[in-house]
Write a structure and sequence with these properties.
This protein has 219 residues and is α/β, with parallel strands linked by helices. 33% of the residues lie in helices and 20% in strands. Strands 3-2-1-4-5-7-6 form a seven-stranded mixed beta sheet, with helices on both faces. The protein binds S-adenosylmethionine. Substrate binds at residues 129, 161, 199-202.
Length: 219
């Protein structure tokens, strides 16, 4: 998928255009086939997190500000989201965020094994119609790409407000066998985790159910 530069929604504002022209090269991860060196990318950081499909970057920027010892890679092909991320990085003066303005999967393939401490898949594109389900990100083949890159004991968070995606994703994670569902009580997946930061998409409440939150520990 060659998706960088996907537009949609509003055109970029003049400030966003300037950010893209002047700052993208500073914070983007370079294209290429070579393996990523996360220690070189984030000097002095010892933990590395990944957010796939950061949308308007609210969650990624807030997590980066709250966790300055962590290096965070965010993936998002949409121009507007990338511009928002660059704005957030600059406004918050962050030194621990890098963006991949494209499909996350080829980037994940370039990561060394067992390098990630956390991953977030928050409100991924719902593809609600049955015939569209095959386009959903969380599928067995995606877990096979992601799992080897996560450290044993690392955490992965998935959230959605689409019931069929919640059911399908939970089944996919649990039946994979390498993702231990951390449901502390029968109901805790109904509440946002304490360290969650509300996203723009989440607050639109476009789905057909209340948001659900699934945290997993990597086996
Ligand atoms: C429904 S939006 C949610 C955005 C954000 N997580 C939020 O909660 O506001 C899903 C986002 O995932 C992005 N996305 C979809 N497939 C992706 C992929 N393979 N790699 C990276 N981002 C992807 C889309 O561009 C979109 O911005």
């Amino acid at each position: 998928m060659r998706s960088f530069g996907r537009t949609g929604g509003r055109p970029l504002s003049p400030r966003q255009k300037t950010l893209m022209a002047e700052k993208l090269d500073t914070y983007r991860i370079a294209e290429g086939d070579g393996p990523l060196d996360l220690c070189a990318m984030f000097p002095g950081k010892e933990a590395f997190w990944l957010e796939i499909g950061f949308g308007g970057a609210e969650h990624m920027i807030a997590q980066a500000a709250q966790n300055p010892d962590v290096g965070i890679i965010g993936c998002e092909p949409f121009l507007e989201g990338i511009a928002k991320a660059l704005g957030g990085i600059e406004e918050t003066d962050l030194n621990n965020v890098r963006v991949w303005p494209d499909d996350a999967r080829p980037l994940i393939a370039r990561m060394p094994d067992q390098c990630l401490d956390r991953a977030f898949v928050l409100f991924p594109d719902p593809w609600p119609k049955r015939r569209q389900h095959k386009r959903r990100l969380v599928q067995a083949d995606f877990l096979s790409i992601l799992h080897p890159k996560m450290k044993p004991g690392a955490r992965l968070r998935f959230a959605t407000d689409v019931k069929s995606y919640a059911d399908e994703a939970l089944l996919t994670f649990v039946s994979d066998g390498r993702f231990e569902w951390l449901a502390a009580s029968p109901d805790d997946w109904r509440c946002p985790p304490q360290d969650h930061v509300t996203t723009r998409y989440e607050s639109k409440r476009l789905g057909d159910c209340k948001p659900v939150w699934f945290d997993f520990r990597i086996r």
